[in-house]
Design goal:
The complex is a heterodimer of chains A (about 160) and B (about 650).
Chain A (H helix, E strand, L loop, with lengths): L17 E6 L3 H10 L8 E6 L7 H9 L4 E6 L10 H15 L10 E5 L5 H18 L16
Parallel strand pairs in A: 1-2, 1-3, 3-4
Helix pairs in contact in A: 1-4
Chain B lengths: L2 E6 L11 H8 L5 E7 L5 H13 L4 E6 L2 H14 L7 E5 L1 H5 L5 H19 L9 E3 L3 E5 L3 H12 L3 E5 L14 E2 L4 E2 H14 L3 E4 L2 E9 L2 E8 L14 H5 L5 E2 L8 E2 L2 E2 L11 E2 L5 H5 L4 H5 L12 E7 L1 E4 L3 E3 L16 E3 H8 L20 E8 L15 H15 L4 E6 L9 H10 L4 E4 L2 E7 L2 E8 L4 E7 L1 E6 L1 E3 L3 H8 L26 E3 L9 H20 L2 E3 L5 E3 L9 H5 L5 E5 L5 E5 L9 H5 L5 E3 L4 H11 L1
Helix pairs in contact in B: 1-5, 2-3, 5-18, 6-7, 6-15, 11-12, 12-13
Classes of the chains: A alpha/beta (about 160), B alpha/beta (about 650).
Chain lengths: ~160, ~650
């Protein structure tokens, strides 16, 4: 499928948009814990649940940023605590590389962050979201490099 | 795909800060959506029936529910749509409670966010495929890690139900912390009299295999079929031969060995049996103190042993056990009070921990059950108890309540008066927490019948004066400073996760909180399950609790294991990786990265090799999917198309 021409374009020009990729076992649970504890957070984040940060293809983040997301936040289990033993270690290497590649793609690297939050760390999650959201707010809307690439499929 | 969208009010939990009607209206504009509505409590029975009715009325082929976290109710709604004839995987949830309504109060922003989350769920659902699980047999054996009272209870209940139990205990004897207690509150039962029979039962049950002085080395596999490696630590005594006669301990010349079972209050020998009722009643050599190991000569025990059980050349041994479920019951350690400089930092022999006082009170303890001061063997006159040492104290990173210490103090103060009627007991406390059955009455008895003086306030300093300890504190009710000349100070040390708890959690692939206590699946509704299927919790490893609660949780974990095993087979999770052989370029990278060796080569005609996923072994992490260069491996239910559809819907 093609990532572009989303068609419906329901909401636009309304605040910034951050895409979150959270592993099901730790960080998604941590975000739930933050919710259960009613820890207030900025409303900019849209969370996508993935089984493990090891599932995280760096291209998901790159594509989101290329096509107009203002920020991408990836979060998983702390190193050594991965539900699948080593998935987050692979993720760490890949995302670290991505972080360094973003400037070469013409993307502000501060629009991307990866972090580790466990299912019990609701407070840490609140902190991570608030800080990253502040950071992206300061950068403002993503000027984007996307239009040149709209015809390219993800394979 | 004809999609129906159901937006839950969750009472006012969601509807309070999200305009649910607006979310439903907007949903009708998303691709495939033919029906959208709101409901007060979608998870209720009428709420679920509403979904089922809509599936048949509107010929829905997929369903989106926007409500709480999928970690909460995804299984519920999958069953709901399943009963209405849809494949359970033609269902998606949008989390608009934990991730929206509960974390923001801006109604407009929340509504917009909820709409976008629903849009993402709909976009993903358009790419969902029906998935089908298969059944695999369960190995009906259970591993219990830790043989304190919680683990013993879990093991006994499982064995009682006819299951084979593998019980692993790190110490040379089972019994855990409860075996060290003198009496238990609020009945003042003798601890070893109520635990002892259970320990004996554990030893005698023919379907319990006990590994004492052993630790779990590694765990692999998954629910129903775990493979566990157990390290049997070298005890330098062949336990098959040892009869527990104790002759070796009697003759051992290394006499000044701190007695770990007596919390280092007494001395034991380098070869010893922890206590007379130990199970198994076998001797162990303490390498650190044994003259044979330190000086290379001695061998007294080897000469004296009537059955020739001593083996200085013994090495750790690794044994492998296959089990279908695991109960973690690893208990706790006592908070080390030496970090409190104001209480002497562990320097004063007459300032002791609560567990040390239990050993002093115990008839089998170092002083034969007579209350004596560790420093000079004198009977104390004034005994001061200090509550919340390593509990409810942020300054030592222990902000939680240990739950049991208030009751322990009341019990110990009562016993002190029983042993020494002429003595005075003082308790410095912050609050008295005694919420269980007969607990508050018990504390009242301590105060009213036994004349224990309760002083509400913290102790600021303890220092020696003559042969006494001066305890300076505040009475915050009277608003005065208090100074007591104590002969013995007992600190109600808090509970903390046992040493190595985190490392074991990593082996079991379960989560723990910042203090090392294991995380249950749901704090209220799934208190003994973990998020790793087939792994259950019992006792203080999950959080501080007293003996009745630990025993209750042990039984609960056992009943969960029995319920799991009763079915004989388990349904596999069909959210596994799948290889498209036409796209696979035979690079083998997926095989290299798979943490579960769930991918192997498959020979096709003409000697061509393609990757093949073993569906029953695959755990569904998706690492192969992210690794595969041509994306030939796709994790079902989280394919690239599905994830990108969610991203796409947002931008």
């Amino acid at each position: 499928m093609s990532i572009a021409n989303s068609g419906s374009g329901t909401v636009s020009n309304q605040g910034i948009k951050i895409v979150g990729f959270l592993c099901n076992w730790c960080s998604y649970g941590g975000a739930d814990t933050a919710g259960v504890c009613r820890f207030k957070q900025p409303a900019d984040l849209r969370i996508i649940r993935i089984p493990c940060t090891g599932r995280m293809d760096p291209l998901f983040a790159a594509k989101a940023l290329i096509y107009g997301a203002d920020g991408v936040l990836v979060s998983g289990c702390h190193p050594r605590d991965c539900h699948y033993a080593v998935g987050n270690l692979y993720a760490r290497r890949r995302l670290e590389v991505l972080q360094h590649f973003l400037p070469f793609m013409g993307i502000e690297p501060r629009r991307f962050r990866y972090t580790w939050v466990s299912a019990s760390e609701g407070q840490l999650w609140q902190q991570v979201v608030t800080e990253f959201s502040d950071q992206v707010q300061k950068l403002g809307p993503n000027p984007g490099v996307g239009n040149l690439l709209t015809e390219e499929g993800h394979r | 795909m004809r999609i129906g969208v159901f937006i839950c009010h969750c009472g006012t939990n969601i509807a309070g800060t999200v305009d649910v009607e607006a979310v439903a209206r907007e949903a009708l504009r998303y691709p495939g959506v033919v029906y959208a509505t709101t409901y007060m409590y979608t998870c209720s029975e009428p709420g679920q029936e509403e979904i089922q009715r809509a599936i048949s009325d509107h010929k829905l082929q997929g369903v989106v529910v926007a409500a709480c976290s999928p970690r909460m109710h995804e299984p519920t709604f999958r069953r709901t749509v399943g009963k209405a004839g849809l494949n359970p995987f033609l269902f998606e949830m949008a989390n608009i409670r934990e991730h929206v309504s509960w974390i923001g109060s801006d109604r407009e922003a929340n509504t917009r966010k909820a709409q976008e989350l629903v849009h993402m769920a709909v976009a993903k659902l358009n790419f969902n495929q029906p998935l089908f699980s298969t059944k695999v047999p369960i190995n009906k054996r259970v591993l219990v890690i830790g043989a304190g009272v919680a683990g013993i209870q879990a093991a006994l209940d499982c064995a009682e139900g006819g299951l084979d139990v593998v019980l692993v205990e790190r110490q040379p004897t089972i019994g855990g912390k409860m075996a060290k207690l003198d009496k238990t509150f609020p009945t003042v039962d003798c601890s070893s009299c109520i635990l002892g029979p259970k320990m004996v039962d554990t030893a005698q049950k023919e379907n319990i295999t006990l590994y004492a002085a052993s630790e779990v080395e590694s765990v692999s596999g998954y629910v129903g079929n775990f493979t566990v490696q157990i390290r049997k630590k070298a005890t330098y005594v062949d336990w098959k031969l040892c009869t527990g006669c104790g002759l070796c301990t009697e003759k051992c010349p290394a006499k000044n060995v701190p007695d770990a079972f007596n919390e280092k209050l007494g001395k034991t020998r380098a070869i010893n049996i922890p206590f007379p009722q130990a199970i198994p009643k076998k001797a162990t050599i303490n390498r650190e103190y044994c003259r044979h190991f330190i000086k290379g000569k001695c061998g007294v025990c080897k000469k004296i042993c009537p059955v020739d059980a001593i083996n200085y050349e013994m090495e750790d041994e690794i044994v492998t056990e296959e089990v279908g479920a695991i109960v973690a019951a690893t208990g706790f350690d006592l908070f080390d009070h030496s970090v409190y400089g104001e209480y002497g930092g562990g320097r004063y022999p007459d300032v002791i921990s609560g567990l040390q006082y239990e050993r002093i009170l115990s008839a089998s303890g170092p002083f034969g059950g007579h209350i004596r001061r560790p420093s000079d063997d004198r009977e104390p006159k004034n005994v001061v108890f200090i509550a919340c040492v390593g509990s409810r104290d942020k300054s030592v990173d222990r902000p939680y309540c240990s739950g049991v210490c208030c009751m322990v103090i009341a019990k110990q103060a009562i016993l002190t008066r029983d042993h020494l009627p002429e003595s005075n007991s003082y308790v410095f406390y912050m609050d008295i927490r005694s919420p269980a059955k007969n607990y508050d009455e018990f504390v009242r008895r301590a105060q009213e019948e036994y004349g224990v003086q309760y002083i509400r306030g913290r102790v600021g300093k303890i220092y020696p004066r003559g042969d006494q300890m001066v305890v300076q504190g505040a009475d915050t009710l009277l608003g005065v400073q208090v100074e007591i000349e104590a002969d013995l100070v007992v600190l109600a040390s808090g509970l903390e996760a046992s040493e190595g708890a985190k490392q074991l959690a990593e082996k079991l692939r379960i989560s723990y909180d910042q203090y090392g206590f294991y995380m249950e699946s749901h704090p209220k509704l799934r208190p003994v399950e973990t998020n790793t299927a087939g792994v259950y919790l019992a006792g203080v490893c999950q959080g501080p609790k007293d003996i009745p609660a630990a025993v209750g949780q042990g039984s609960a974990a056992a009943s969960k294991v029995q319920a799991l095993f009763a079915r004989g087979t388990i349904e596999t999770n069909p959210q596994v990786a799948l290889v498209n052989e036409r796209v696979c370029i035979s690079c083998g990278k997926c095989i290299d990265v798979c943490p579960f060796t769930a991918i192997q080569w498959k020979e096709l005609r003409g000697g061509i090799r393609k990757a093949e996923v073993l569906a029953t072994v695959c755990q569904g992490c998706g690492l192969c999917n992210a690794t595969c260069p041509p994306k030939a491996v796709q994790l079902q239910h989280a394919t690239d198309d599905q994830i990108l559809a969610e991203v796409n819907a947002l931008l």
